């Protein structure tokens, strides 16, 4: 969703030389930007600002009628308060004086001609990304402000609860401020790494060891930023009661194994043992619940355990208790003090919320876990001893299982795919396909490519060796949901994993109802891909 939003950004080019404009327009077209306007007359900028409402401006300095500095001065007068309009100066004047003056007049970036087109593209993308995050922060701030106003109105209508309600409103304000400060830190910190190491990678004569290190840190910063934004959006869905629950028969042990394998891959910096512990003969145990929400609950709780445990072990497991399934995540970490035990599930709170705390994060992982457990009809609690470790517990109903899957049938289903290695990727976007193909490149895998849903259907008909499909949901000719329905009419047991950059819950529900076995949101994590392959019996 973020990538498509950036590609739809409105870009205004201001340069009195048509050849310069043409070069930039061709670059932007290659990069996939669709809304580009240009002018050779600097006097038209303010009018275009009002009518076109650009998201970013590429501005020359030396122009007739009005210089770039004059344009920057005019933009200051007409820009809305609190708005953020990035301006990148592209000029042949590479003097330090011109650069300092441009930045002081309100420009956000400065590039001297002749410039490297790849660098220009990256600067534009990074600046649009900053603008997007700024808009998200402003939007969520408005939501939080609206909620504060609603609470204030409730105070005026209830004199008997005036004091209590006032205290709650003040606490809400404090949490909001703490959250906004923390979310700003959690966005700006990885963003600084992305921009900084991106610039370092563009330098000449970079050593391979340095390049590898920069790429590793760039990837780490990107993942941290993605997790922050994803958690932020998840909290918004919980607060607005828009999170849907899609229950189906699942094997909880497979979810436990998937989580355990994922965190074994992610746990590279600590000497920790991560394992799972389940009762004997539960591999064929089925429960009726939302697999994705269960996965998220376990993910946040194990992530929390990993964050606060430096040595020892983390155990994940479950036991059956009557009509419920009791899950546990225990660690040998720092533990939680008694005074913090009753507030760790509150929104945006960590056990240590001071500015010098030693653990990164937004402090909303446990809030999300609690919210998802509640949606599944369960309850969650914690037991901890400071300095010795923590155990989180949550129980959810087993539910009514319509179709029990025996251990024999389950193993037979998984063994159907073992030894085969042909995967179909249905993806219309060339860049997304190339990235997925690079991530899945392996000697044991044969990758096929369908550019729309109809091609995917035909390829599944013609190629019996295909044993798994990654299906993008938004494609031309025939979308991914309709293509999945069609494929399931003649390949009922072929596993299809939905891929999408759209976070809508209804879209996920439609995909699962159409026959998709799993659902992955873009941007896609490479480790997650291989975890999914292993879950469906494909060893690489």
Helices and strands, with pairings:
Elements: H1 2-7, E1 10-14, H2 18-30, E2 35-39, H3 45-52, E3 56-59, H4 68-78, E4 87-91, H5 96-104, E5 109-112, H6 117-156, H7 162-201, H8 208-239, E6 248-250, H9 252-266, E7 271-277, E8 287-289, H10 291-307, E9 311-321, E10 324-331, H11 365-375, E11 379-385, E12 389-397, H12 407-415, E13 422-426, H13 430-439, E14 446-450, H14 453-462, E15 466-472, H15 480-488, E16 496-500, H16 505-514, E17 518-521, H17 526-535
Parallel strand pairs: 1-2, 1-3, 3-4, 4-5, 7-9, 13-14, 13-15, 15-16, 16-17
Antiparallel strand pairs: 6-8, 9-10, 10-12, 11-12
Structure, briefly:
The chain is an alpha/beta fold and 540 residues long.
Description:
- This protein is α/β, with parallel strands linked by helices and 540 residues long.
- The chain folds into four domains: 2-115, Rossmann fold (3-Layer(aba) Sandwich), CATH 3.40.50.2300; 122-239, no CATH class; 248-397, Histidine kinase-like ATPase, C-terminal domain (Heat Shock Protein 90), CATH 3.30.565.10; 416-535, 3-Layer(aba) Sandwich (Rossmann fold), CATH 3.40.50.2300.
- The chain is built from 17 helices and 17 strands.
- The strands form four sheets. Strands 2-1-3-4-5 form a five-stranded parallel beta sheet, sandwiched between helices. It has a five-stranded mixed beta sheet with strand order 7-9-10-12-11, covered by helices on one side. Strands 14-13-15-16-17 form a five-stranded parallel beta sheet, sandwiched between helices.
- Helix 8 packs across helix 11.
- It is globular.
């Amino acid at each position: 969703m973020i990538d498509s939003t950036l590609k739809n950004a409105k870009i205004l080019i201001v340069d009195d030389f048509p050849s310069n404009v043409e070069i930039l327009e061709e670059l932007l077209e290659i990069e996939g930007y669709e809304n580009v306007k240009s002018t050779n007359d600097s006097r038209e900028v303010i009018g275009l600002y009002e009518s076109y409402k650009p998201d970013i401006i590429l501005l020359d300095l030396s122009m007739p009628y009005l210089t770039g500095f004059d344009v920057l001065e005019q933009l200051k007068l007409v820009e809305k308060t609190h708005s953020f309009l990035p301006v990148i100066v592209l000029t042949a004047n590479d003097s330090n004086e011109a650069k300092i003056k441009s930045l002081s007049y309100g420009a956000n970036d400065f590039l001297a001609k002749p410039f490297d087109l790849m660098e220009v593209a990256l600067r534009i993308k990074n600046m649009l990304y900053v603008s997007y995050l700024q808009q998200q922060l402003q939007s969520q701030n408005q939501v939080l402000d609206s909620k504060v106003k609603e609470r204030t109105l409730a105070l005026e209508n209830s004199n008997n609860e005036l004091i209590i309600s006032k205290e709650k409103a003040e606490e809400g304000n404090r949490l909001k401020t703490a959250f906004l400060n923390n979310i700003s830190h959690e966005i700006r910190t990885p963003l600084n790494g992305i921009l900084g190491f991106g610039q370092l990678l563009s330098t000449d004569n970079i050593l391979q060891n340095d390049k590898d290190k920069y790429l590793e840190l760039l990837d780490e910063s990107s993942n941290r930023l993605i997790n922050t934004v994803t958690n932020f959006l998840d909290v918004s869905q919980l607060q607005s009661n828009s999170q849907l629950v899609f229950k189906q028969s699942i094997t909880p042990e497979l979810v436990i194994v998937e989580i355990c394998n994922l965190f074994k891959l992610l746990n590279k910096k600590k000497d920790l043992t991560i394992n799972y512990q389940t009762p004997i003969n539960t591999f064929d145990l089925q429960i009726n619940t939302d697999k994705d929400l269960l996965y998220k609950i376990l993910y946040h709780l194990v992530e929390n355990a990993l964050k606060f445990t430096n040595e020892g072990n983390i155990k994940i497991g479950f036991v059956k208790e009557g009509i419920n399934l009791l899950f546990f995540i225990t660690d040998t970490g720092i533990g939680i003090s008694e005074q913090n035990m009753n507030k760790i599930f509150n929104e945006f709170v960590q056990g240590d919320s001071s500015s010098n705390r030693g653990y990164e994060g937004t402090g909303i992982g446990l809030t999300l876990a609690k919210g998802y457990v509640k949606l599944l009809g369960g309850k969650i609690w914690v037991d901890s001893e400071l300095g010795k470790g923590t155990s989180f517990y949550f129980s959810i109903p087993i539910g009514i299982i319509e179709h029990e899957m025996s251990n024999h049938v389950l193993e037979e289903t998984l063994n159907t795919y073992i030894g085969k290695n042909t995967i179909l990727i249905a993806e219309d976007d060339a860049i997304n396909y190339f990235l997925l193909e690079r991530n899945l490149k392996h000697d044991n895998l044969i990758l096929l490519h369908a550019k729309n849903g109809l091609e995917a259907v035909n390829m599944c008909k013609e190629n019996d060796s295909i044993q798994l499909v990654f299906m993008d949901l938004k494609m031309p000719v025939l979308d991914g949901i309709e293509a999945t329905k069609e494929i399931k009419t003649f390949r009922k047991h072929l596993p299809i994993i939905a891929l999408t950059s759209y976070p809508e819950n209804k879209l996920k529900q439609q995909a699962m109802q159409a026959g998709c076995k799993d659902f992955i949101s873009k941007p896609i994590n490479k480790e997650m891909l291989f975890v999914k392959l292993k879950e469906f019996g494909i060893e690489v």
